[in-house]
Design goal:
- The chain is α/β, with parallel strands linked by helices.
- The protein has 3 domains: 135 residues, no CATH class; 125 residues, NAD(P)-binding Rossmann-like Domain (Rossmann fold), CATH 3.40.50; 244 residues, NAD(P)-binding Rossmann-like Domain (Rossmann fold).
- It contains 22 helices and 21 strands.
- The strands form 5 sheets. An 8-stranded mixed beta sheet has the order 9-8-7-10-11-12-16-19, with helices on both faces. Strands 3-4-2-1-5-6 form a 6-stranded mixed beta sheet, with helices on both faces.
- The protein starts with a helix and ends with a strand.
Length: 648
């Protein structure tokens, strides 16, 4: 019930109750008094003196209830303190009415039996209305609890030895009420609820189980500082990932420990839709901080595209390739082949997808490199895939910068091999999984990916196969990215190393990236560049401090942050592609355009070596200079297989 509606409801109920209480008290007093008035005589006297007597006292009582914040109490959530507070408000209203009667000179309202009986009737009627309101509001909750009990018993909270002190709770809801009740019932836990933060402006100033509600997200930092908050609990299990991310961004700016009540749909469970407990709380993760809601996709359309088809995923053992396979196999392709040199990744993926094998769906793995042209030809010849997702790549910028030959052989020549074979064996679609860095190509890794994109674009103009490119920002779960580095450094106690305090990176969850890539593949008509995102932007320095606070520690006190030096080839800011020329359905988060850069690959005789195995770093740098003549890479002769040498 909305705040204004709730206040109006209780206001009207209280006026009716106060009127009824005074009438009953007056009638009973008249019946037992020495004068022995009849009921009709007593009622007539009551109503004749009502405007100048009891009406004034009722107005005084209602005003006293307002002043004592009785109408700010959220009776949607049951609690003994609610009734304690309303009882105190009734005592205050009775004292106020007696004082007003004495000042005005309403003698019949000062009779002890009238005062006592009216108070008893006030308490009985008003508390009954609140109780009935509460019962109605909690009806749905009881149904959820019954379903939960059928699923299995809940864990009971075990008292912790350590004290967490003063607590701020985010979310004025059933879960918050459960947590507050548990804290108030177990004072030995050392958790004292001090304030509730909620975005619902209509709740501002209300009281939930004796705790004030502040309806502004901006109040998080202010209240945390002013009220000396030790712990912040996010109790919004019904919230979306984007809402949780926005709340966490405010929370990490405080010096408080942060806990979170798992989302209703987290891990496929719905138990937190019922009674919440302190035992359910967990530490927030980097996925909570950077995560976004699942994209809305047309699963039926994707199923029509993939069901019964043969799909090949190169780089299938990697973080992104594995997730692609997890997404694709749900649409029941006739055969899904994961190709990679990473045998451990393929073994783990095979064990995970074993349950998806059916008579109609077969999952296979191939251990080989996309650089092995002979083996790649055998794979295409044996399976003849309808759709190819090319996710095999070397992506680490610093390593590619000092090992340009390896990056070129995998990202360019490996791509060319798969691309040509897709055309030769009549694949319907070929999707290159690229990176947003390719748009700016200021380092070897990005230049190799951009060269691959250019080849895919030219191939699309000549072949029957539909070729398209999908770009995405940094994966949150990526191995070797800044997040994984920070996590390892945190485990060892720090320090966290930031290469440039002004650097900004964009992140996307691997599940979202894979889902959107599959969706883009169904929409590909040939020649498009799809960009996923733009992704969640975060300053690297800010990210380091946030990850420290998520661990319950304080930057530069418990764990230090050290600024080192920007590595060669790194960009300070990874901007999303410009929006000019793009169209995007608002729910799909996919930017779509054609390649309008004007870049063209040199003649094949200049670009593709006849004997790739004899390539060295210097030769690769010279090839990249042909494609990107305006950018000067580091001289290749200063590195030999990743080891710096002195030319002189």
């Amino acid at each position: 019930m909305a705040k204004n509606t709730r206040i109006a409801f209780f206001f009207i109920c209280d006026i009716i109750c106060f009127n009824g209480s005074y009438l009953l008290a007056f009638l009973i007093n008249a019946a037992v008094s020495p004068d022995r008035l009849t009921a009709s005589e007593a009622a007539g006297y009551y109503f004749s003196s009502y405007p100048a007597g009891f009406l004034i006292l009722i107005i005084v009582k209602v005003a006293a209830m307002f002043v004592s914040s009785a109408y700010k109490i959220l009776f949607e959530y049951a609690g003994l303190r609610n009734f304690q507070r309303i009882s105190l408000s009734l005592v205050a209203s009775t004292l106020a009415s007696v004082t007003a009667a004495a000042l005005i000179g309403i003698e019949f309202a000062l009779l002890p039996p009238v005062i006592l009986l009216s108070f008893i009737f006030d308490a009985a009627l008003i508390i009954t209305t609140r109780a009935l309101y509460m019962k109605r509001s909690s009806g749905r909750r009881e149904e959820v609890k019954e379903e939960e009990e059928e699923e299995g018993p809940r864990r009971r909270y075990q008292a912790r030895k350590s004290s967490s002190g003063r607590v701020m709770i985010i979310g004025a809801n059933r879960s918050a009420a459960d947590l507050i009740s548990e804290m108030q019932a177990n004072e030995n836990l050392g958790r004292n609820p001090e304030v509730i933060i909620d975005d619902d402006k209509s709740l501002d100033g209300d009281i939930l189980l004796g705790v004030e509600i502040a309806a502004k997200r901006s109040e998080i930092r202010i209240r945390a500082r002013r009220q000396l908050i030790d712990e912040i609990i996010i109790a919004k299990p019904e919230a979306s990932k984007r809402q949780i991310s926005a709340l966490l961004r405010e929370c990490v700016k405080t010096r408080c420990k942060i806990s979170i009540l798992p989302l209703i749909r987290e891990g496929g469970k719905t138990s937190h839709a019922g009674t919440a407990s302190l035992a359910d709380l967990r530490k927030p993760t980097i996925n909570d901080l950077l995560g976004r809601d699942r994209p809305r996709v047309d699963h039926r359309k994707i199923g029509d595209e993939l069901k019964g088809r043969v799909v090949l995923v190169t780089g299938g053992g990697g973080v992104f390739g594995s997730e692609l396979c997890r997404r694709i196999i749900r649409y029941k392709p006739r055969r899904l082949i994961a190709l990679d040199v990473d045998e451990d990744g393929l073994a783990l993926l095979t064990a995970e997808l074993e349950g998806f094998r059916t008579a109609e769906t077969e999952f296979l793995t191939v251990i080989t490199s996309v650089r092995d042209a002979t083996m790649m030809r055998r794979v295409f010849g044996a399976f003849r895939p309808h759709i190819v997702f090319h996710a095999a790549e070397l992506k680490q910028i610093p390593l590619a910068q000092i090992n340009p030959r390896e990056a070129f052989l995998t990202n360019v020549l490996g791509l060319k091999t798969a691309c040509d074979l897709a055309d030769e064996y009549s694949a319907e679609k070929f999707i290159l999984c690229s990176t947003v860095r390719a748009a700016y190509h200021t380092n070897v890794a990005a230049q190799c990916k951009r060269t691959a994109e250019l080849y895919v674009n030219e191939k699309n103009e000549k072949a029957h196969t539909k070729y398209a490119t999908v770009r995405f920002p940094n994966l949150i779960e990526g191995r070797g990215n800044v997040i994984s580095v920070f996590e390892k450094q945190l485990k060892t106690g720090g320090p966290l190393t930031v290469t440039d305090k002004d650097s900004v990176r964009r992140f996307i969850g691997v599940e979202e990236a894979a889902m959107l890539t599959v969706l883009a593949a169904t929409r590909a008509a040939g020649g498009e560049i799809f960009e996923l995102g733009p992704g969640e932007a975060f300053g690297i320095s800010e990210l380091a401090e946030a990850m420290i606070r998520l661990e319950g520690k304080i930057p530069d006190e418990d764990v230090s942050v050290v600024v080192t030096q920007r590595r060669e080839g790194e960009r300070r800011i990874e901007e999303p592609f410009e929006a000019a020329g793009y169209t995007t359905p608002p729910a799909e988060r996919i930017w779509v355009t054609q390649d309008r850069s004007g870049l063209k690959l040199p003649h094949w005789s200049q670009l593709w070596p006849k004997e790739p195995e004899r390539l060295d770093d210097m030769a690769v740098i010279e090839i990249l200079r042909l494609v990107f003549p305006t950018y000067k890479n580091k001289p290749a002769e200063k590195t030999t297989r990743g080891v710096k040498v002195d030319n002189e």
